[in-house]
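User: Here's a structure from my thesis project, written as structure tokens. My advisor, Dr. K., wants to see whether a designed sequence matches the one we expressed. Can you design one independently, without my sequence as a hint?
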């Protein structure tokens, strides 16, 4: 294990009372022109990757829209106008302003309306596609964008802003892996026996794995089966003596049922073939592609020297003609590969997806289904072969997630006590000191959307520690309440430095980045997500005085940050990329 002496000295302090340590919180900065910023992974040498969401001034192309004959657009405008009336606010634009007076570039309300309308038509190829999330790199100078597959637009200045973009893992020498989608291109299409051209927005592939060197050299990790584009994603990477090992998932073929539908119906007569194929990919709950976990071996120049495909935790029956999936999510320095696979539920025909280990040609479950766990994902593995993640089961009538750690050496799974019995929780990372970080629901009263707060858990201790309890009560002036709430602990290194996402309240901004005021001219406020680093420092936990109103305001700023990513084509954090 790395950093044994350092770990011993730190744990000598923490193990007596992990809750007696305090942490200093620092913002990592953010990308100019984006409202929300997140961390996805951090290397031991301090390379930090992440994503930004809520881009301002997304480019809107209206050149192909017939504003005089678009019933969907007219209906959306009527709905928007009614919503304005409900808040006693006058709508400041018309559809004619958008069509003829450049309102999308001069009026923030008109721009926001078009962004909302277009994202609501994300599955309709006859409308422009938008993505509000980008991959980011953090340095001492701040955060910057890392372009994956996007390209310069032919219709406006800048990138198309139509791609998914996610960096998932980074090595100690700064080599990154992740995945993205192809940019959409505006394409003319004419139906068979018709004369009028239609405009469609089409792309070459849904997802493609990528490796990027520290100096920006990009290597695409394409699947061997790439009909209709195929799919691949890269989830984790380790540096080896001879290069790198990358794990993820690739398409291996198209399942029988969706292939029959594609061959029967995607003939290019009534709609573009790629549009038809993507529609079927959405229709089938597991998609059209059979996907398998994969490990790529690369040399020091990022050339692929070997590709190893892993199997499934079940054997499909002859009449099961839909897609089956496995996915490699994490790898450690010992070469242990963990991920998910379709398996049978309690030996019956029902299929579920569970955490597994890929080892010696076998796919091994380690969560006991007899305890009624019905799904789950491992999210990280340390160099002592301890795996962390979450599993799901029904609790009090609702499916909840609970974080776990699995020690492969002792073949034991532990589900520690989290914030409360029906709290959903997950573990995002574990370091070589046996300290787990993650997030859990802290709002016991709500039954639907609950706020989440980051935690730290030391293996061998009895309970999780809310990271917000280890932060100051007040800002440096000693009077202003501390403005941050840690919503997610994403990564922890062997110095026990924690990286994640916090929320804070700021002046609200519109889709151009301008400050928003209400009908009375008062500035409005909102919670935003910021990327943060938490460093352990000497001290003791402060007992914050109970001030119910301020306490509520502080906690209400904490929310499931991934909810911000539910725009079409937006990137998602590590837990979602594993699916």
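Assistant: Designed independently from the structure alone:
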């Amino acid at each position: 294990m790395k950093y044994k002496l350092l770990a011993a000295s730190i744990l000598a302090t923490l193990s007596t009372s992990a809750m007696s340590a305090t942490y200093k919180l620092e913002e990592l900065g953010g990308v100019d022109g984006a409202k929300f910023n997140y961390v996805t992974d951090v290397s031991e040498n301090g390379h930090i990757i992440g994503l930004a969401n809520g881009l301002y001034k997304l480019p809107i192309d209206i050149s192909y829209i017939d504003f005089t004959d678009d019933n969907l657009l007219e209906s959306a405008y009527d709905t928007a106008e009614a919503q304005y009336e409900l808040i006693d606010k006058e709508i400041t634009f018309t559809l004619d302003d958008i069509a003829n007076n450049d309102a999308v570039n001069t009026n923030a309300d008109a721009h926001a309306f078009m962004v909302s309308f277009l994202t609501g038509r994300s599955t309709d190829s006859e409308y422009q596609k938008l993505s509000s999330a980008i991959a980011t790199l953090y340095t001492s100078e701040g955060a910057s964008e890392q372009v994956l597959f996007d390209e310069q637009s032919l219709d406006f200045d800048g990138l198309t802003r139509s791609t998914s973009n996610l960096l998932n893992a980074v090595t100690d020498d700064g080599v990154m892996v992740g995945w993205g989608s192809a940019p959409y291109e505006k394409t003319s299409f004419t139906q068979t026996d018709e004369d009028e051209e239609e405009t469609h927005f089409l792309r070459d592939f849904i997802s493609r794995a990528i490796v990027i060197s520290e100096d920006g050299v990009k290597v695409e990790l394409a699947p061997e089966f790439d009909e209709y584009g195929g799919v691949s994603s890269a989830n984790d990477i380790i540096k080896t003596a001879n290069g790198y090992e990358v794990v993820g998932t690739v398409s291996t073929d198209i399942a029988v049922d969706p292939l029959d539908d594609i061959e029967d119906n995607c003939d290019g007569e009534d709609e573009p073939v790629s549009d038809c194929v993507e529609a079927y990919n959405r229709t089938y709950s597991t998609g059209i592609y059979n996907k398998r976990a994969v490990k790529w071996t690369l040399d020091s120049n990022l050339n692929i020297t070997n590709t190893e495909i892993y199997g499934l935790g079940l054997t499909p029956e002859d009449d099961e003609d839909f897609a089956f999936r496995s996915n490699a999510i994490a790898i450690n320095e010992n070469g242990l590969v963990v991920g998910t696979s379709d398996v049978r539920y309690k030996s019956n025909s029902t299929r579920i997806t569970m955490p597994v280990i890929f080892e010696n040609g076998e796919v091994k479950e380690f969560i006991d289904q007899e305890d009624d766990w019905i799904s789950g994902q491992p999210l990280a593995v340390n160099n002592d072969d301890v795996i962390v993640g979450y599993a799901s089961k029904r609790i009090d009538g609702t499916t909840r997630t609970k974080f776990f750690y699995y020690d492969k050496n002792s073949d034991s799974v532990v589900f520690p006590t989290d914030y409360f019995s029906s709290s959903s929780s997950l573990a995002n990372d574990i370091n070589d000191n046996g300290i787990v970080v993650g997030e859990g629901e802290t709002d016991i009263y709500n039954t639907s959307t609950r706020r989440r707060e980051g935690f730290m858990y030391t293996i061998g201790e009895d309970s999780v520690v809310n990271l917000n309890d280890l932060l100051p009560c007040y800002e440096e002036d000693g009077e202003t309440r501390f403005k941050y709430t840690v919503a997610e602990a994403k990564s922890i290194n062997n110095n026990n430095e924690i990286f994640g996402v916090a929320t804070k309240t700021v002046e609200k901004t519109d889709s151009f980045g301008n400050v928003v005021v209400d009908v009375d001219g008062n500035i409005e406020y909102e919670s935003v997500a910021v990327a943060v680093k938490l460093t352990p420092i000497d001290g003791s936990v402060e007992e914050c005085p109970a001030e119910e109103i301020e306490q509520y305001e502080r906690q209400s700023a904490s929310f499931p940050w991934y909810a911000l990513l539910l725009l079409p084509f937006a990137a998602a954090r590590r837990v979602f990329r594993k699916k």
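When you compare it with your expressed construct, this may help: The first helix runs from residue 4 to 14.
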